[in-house]
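Milestone 3.1: sequence recovery, worked example.
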């Protein structure tokens, strides 16, 4: 090394040393949320122009770097923002509150409480600038003859703004608006350095011009939320009902990449409509003083209503009085019981929501205020407010893409490969709580979900017809609804696994074929099997209703032919915990609860448009069946009773007892190979537990042995699963899988103190298959776990 550097000057040695080093230097300074605090304890009136509404932030950082490969890499970052937030307290006006005849009438409560606010609740604005400049020079490689190295530059200059307001129009009507606007500041290419005056002045002129034009917008989006509390509580007849509705609209505009301006921007909107309601029937019943008195008693029955004979000279008189009292009390209890039965329905809730959206590429207009074009025409006020192509009932009433094309809002490009899409999802949920008598609770639940989406390529075809065309349209979605399949829950197979419900499915197909043919006016029967022209035994519209009719126990003459029109039916949860209150059981049980649950759902996992379908619906497939508009691959019925019956009891001596019986069944209809796969299971669970109080721990902590309760638990479960494939065309039933599962779980839990818990456990699961192609297995899991809680 000495020989290599002996001839170098000090400056050359310094340069060589610099090249051999990896050097990084960072510097930064920032001021965050700099603002003036309000004085006077906030008691003064706030104004729109108050300086206290503003806050300023600024940050600067730079970095210098060089190493053996990099001559220099200098980066500078500038960030600044101005925030404005005004949150006044607008005055609430009630113009009719003090008018005598209005304020004294409960029927005029809506007019009495009519109100509105004078002004906004909140106004906010934030604009921020983020600029980064990086200059890098790579050292040349002396072993390779290359062109002279030149610096490279990486620059970003973003200008982002967020603004919004909240306006409580009335106490029950509220409006929120929030928007985001993203833009870039145009810069000239190359170096940015005041030393080079010409290039620097050109850069500065470009930046100032771009700022005066509010930058080049690359993205804009806003959200509008409107909530309304329905005034049902203002009327005596409906004050037991509460309901609110929400409308949320979204709009988004995204610029095309700068090198692909010919493709235009992409715009999309969204719409969410929600309705939530609650029916408090107890408040309705309480409008009657007699019924309110019964409800106020709650679970307790209160004392005797008859008078007590305090003194009597003869026992016969006391006994007669006692009989009269018991008779009177019995009459009262019967009346109260009947009244309580009438008030079985206690509470109801329902929710409805609809989520929709449109996405359209190739939009040729710029964005300005509120996302509209500079002339405030495109894409239309309705679109930026969330208007969709379909109405509330789902019927198609407009085509926004065609409207945009007719108004010349779209670019004329055939190179657009982003699909024009429409989405729509509808959800319905309802719940009803019943209490027919004391300690009995029944929950009825119903739900329905449908998702329907469509897509196509909407673009300009200059090579053929010089017009916009809608190419490759497709519709796809999914569907589920709660149903009741209780009628076939307990159907069993014979020794050859033949099931009467499946046999009924095969027979129902002929009835469904006749109904469908009758609706079309078709009278021709294909062959001696009895199926009609176009609706053979394998046709989709024949098989699905037959599947539903057979497994729900309905008649094939009355079942819905369109599965998407099925009305949701209630499932249920039943709980009874009154046995421990009855005289024969109260001395033995501290608590005794009986549970039952039922769930059954019909669902179509996914469907899509059949590309072979024709608008007249007359197209036939290779075997002479009508081609359906929607191609459905699978339809499923899922039935779960977990538990079918459950007993949970705690004895007076703290011994826990549990017995549970579960059933489940899953039926999957495959339209591709015409078979039903049935997976059913049964499970018995027996459990017990006990709490030993004040058990001393065998080890001492801090010189003392802690004393705490020890909880023991033992659960044994026996489960049988079986999978049967039922083939329609071959009329065959085959068991393809199944197992008997035995599970043993036991544990001991001991709390040493509030932070330390010790648990010992043993679990063993034994799996015995019912078919010869599988092998038995067993898994054992045992150990001790120690849990220490650091924070309380």
């Amino acid at each position: 090394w000495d020989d290599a550097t002996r001839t170098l000057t000090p400056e050359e040695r310094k340069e060589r040393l610099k090249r051999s080093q990896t050097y990084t230097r960072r510097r930064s300074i920032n001021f965050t949320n700099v603002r003036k605090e309000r004085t006077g304890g906030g008691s003064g009136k706030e104004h729109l122009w108050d300086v206290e509404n503003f806050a300023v932030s600024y940050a600067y950082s730079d970095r210098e770097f060089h190493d053996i490969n990099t001559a220099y890499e200098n980066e500078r970052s500038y960030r600044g923002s101005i925030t404005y937030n005004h949150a006044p307290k607008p005055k609430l006006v009630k113009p009719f509150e003090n008018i005598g005849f209005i304020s004294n009438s409960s029927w005029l409560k809506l007019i009495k409480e009519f109100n509105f606010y004078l002004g906004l609740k909140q106004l906010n604005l934030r604009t921020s600038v983020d600029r980064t400049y990086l200059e890098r020079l790579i050292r040349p490689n002396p072993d390779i003859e290359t062109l002279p190295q030149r610096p490279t530059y990486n620059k970003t200059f973003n200008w982002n703004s967020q603004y919004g307001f909240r306006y409580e129009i009335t106490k029950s009507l509220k409006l929120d608006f929030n928007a985001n606007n993203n833009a870039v500041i145009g810069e000239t290419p190359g170096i940015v350095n005041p030393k080079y005056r010409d290039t620097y002045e050109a850069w500065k002129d470009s930046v100032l011009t771009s700022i005066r034009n509010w930058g080049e917008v690359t993205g804009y989006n806003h959200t509008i939320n409107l909530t309304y509390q329905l005034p049902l509580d203002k009327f005596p007849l409906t004050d037991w009902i509460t309901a609110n509705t929400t409308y949320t609209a979204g709009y988004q505009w995204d610029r095309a990449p700068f090198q692909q301006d010919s493709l235009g921007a992409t715009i999309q909107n969204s719409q969410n409509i929600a309705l939530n309601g609650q029916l408090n029937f107890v408040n309705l019943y309480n409008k009657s003083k007699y019924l309110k008195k019964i409800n106020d008693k709650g679970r307790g029955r209160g004392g005797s209503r008859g008078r007590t004979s305090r003194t009597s000279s003869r026992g016969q008189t006391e006994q007669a009085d006692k009989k009269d009292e018991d008779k009177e009390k019995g009459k009262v209890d019967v009346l109260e019981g009947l009244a309580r039965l009438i008030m079985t329905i206690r509470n109801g809730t329902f929710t409805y929501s609809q989520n929709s959206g449109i996405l359209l590429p190739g939009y040729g207009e710029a964005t300005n205020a509120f996302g509209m074009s500079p002339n405030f025409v495109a894409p239309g006020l309705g679109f930026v407010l969330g208007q969709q192509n379909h109405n509330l009932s789902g019927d198609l009433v407009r085509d926004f893409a065609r409207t945009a094309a007719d108004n010349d809002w779209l670019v004329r490009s055939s190179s657009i490969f982003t699909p024009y899409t429409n989405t729509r999802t509808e959800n319905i949920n309802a719940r009803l709580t019943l209490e027919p008598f004391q300690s009995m609770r029944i929950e009825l639940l119903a739900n329905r979900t449908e998702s329907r989406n469509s897509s196509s390529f909407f673009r300009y075809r200059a090579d053929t017809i010089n017009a916009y065309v809608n190419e490759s349209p497709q519709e796809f979605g999914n569907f589920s609804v709660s149903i009741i399949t209780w009628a076939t829950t307990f159907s069993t197979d014979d020794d050859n696994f033949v099931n009467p419900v499946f046999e009924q499915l095969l027979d129902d197909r002929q009835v469904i074929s006749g109904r469908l043919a009758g609706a079309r006016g078709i009278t021709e029967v294909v062959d001696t099997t009895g199926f009609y022209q176009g609706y053979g035994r394998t046709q989709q519209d024949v098989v699905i209703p037959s599947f539903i009719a057979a497994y729900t126990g309905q008649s094939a003459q009355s079942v819905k032919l369109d599965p998407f029109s099925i009305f949701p039916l209630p499932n249920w949860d039943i709980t009874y915990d009154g046995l421990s209150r009855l005289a024969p059981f109260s001395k033995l049980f501290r608590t005794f609860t009986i549970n039952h649950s039922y769930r059954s759902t019909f669902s179509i996992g996914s469907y899509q448009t059949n590309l072979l379908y024709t608008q007249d619906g007359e197209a036939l497939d290779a075997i002479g069946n009508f081609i359906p508009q929607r191609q459905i691959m699978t339809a499923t019925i899922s039935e779960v009773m977990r538990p079918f019956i459950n007993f949970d009891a705690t004895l007076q001596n703290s011994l826990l007892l549990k017995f549970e019986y579960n059933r489940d069944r899953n039926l999957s209809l495959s339209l591709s190979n015409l078979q039903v796969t049935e997976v059913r299971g049964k499970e018995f669970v027996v459990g017990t537990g006990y709490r030993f109080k004040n058990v001393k721990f065998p080890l001492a902590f801090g010189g003392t042995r802690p004393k705490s309760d020890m909880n023991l638990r033992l659960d044994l479960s026996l489960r049988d699963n079986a999978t049967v494939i039922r083939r329609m065309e071959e009329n065959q039933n085959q068991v393809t899988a199944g197992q008997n599962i035995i599970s043993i779980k036991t544990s001991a839990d001991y709390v040493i103190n509030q932070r330390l818990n010790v648990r010992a456990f043993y679990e063993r699961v034994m799996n015995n298959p019912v078919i010869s192609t599988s092998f038995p297995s067993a898994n054992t899991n045992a150990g001790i776990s120690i849990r220490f809680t650091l924070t309380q």
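Residues 299-314 have pLDDT under 50 and may be disordered. Residues 315-342 form the longest helix (28 residues).
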